[in-house]
Amino acid sequence: EAASQYEFRIYNTGEGYDQTFVRNTYILQLKWNNNVAPPLVNGYTYNVEVRAMVSGVWGSFCPSTCTITIDNGMERPDALMEQATGNTSLWPNPVRDGQVTLAIDGLSTGSGADAEQQITVDVQDLFGKRVFAQEFSNSGERFTTILQLPGDIASGVYLVNITVNGESTVQRLSIVR
Fold first, then answer.
1. Range with lowest mean pLDDT among 80-89, 92-101, 119-128, 143-152
2. Sign of CA dihedral 71, 73, 78, 79
3. What is the pLDDT of residue 60?
């Protein structure tokens, strides 16, 4: 059964910011005014937790927390959000046939172009249940692979946790059957 609501908790303990938003969609646009909640501050980093309501019952917050850094700098209007893991792309999204391409560009090569990177991919449903996990080794600034998700994976929204040498990022992935 699909989720009917999503709860987003955005917080920065050091700055005393802790706000919760409930939406009927898995998308939360980060543009609100003081009438809704205190605005996010340029240059600050916030933690984001998400949980879903299914059949009228709230699930637990996903075990993985992602971070966002607010960058309202005018000098970067077309910038992509870069993580420590590089620029991460998943496509197609939504996925219909169980195959999704993962590409990471701009990986840190550490002590040289041949430095080894350990990459793990962990796909979880919105209740935190792992549905897919795989590990890879890579060297160089770019990594690309095709992930073959389980054939019995249900339609819905999943969180893809991508970790490169201990630095993580989270991407959202939709499955349509």
1. 80-89
2. negative
3. 92
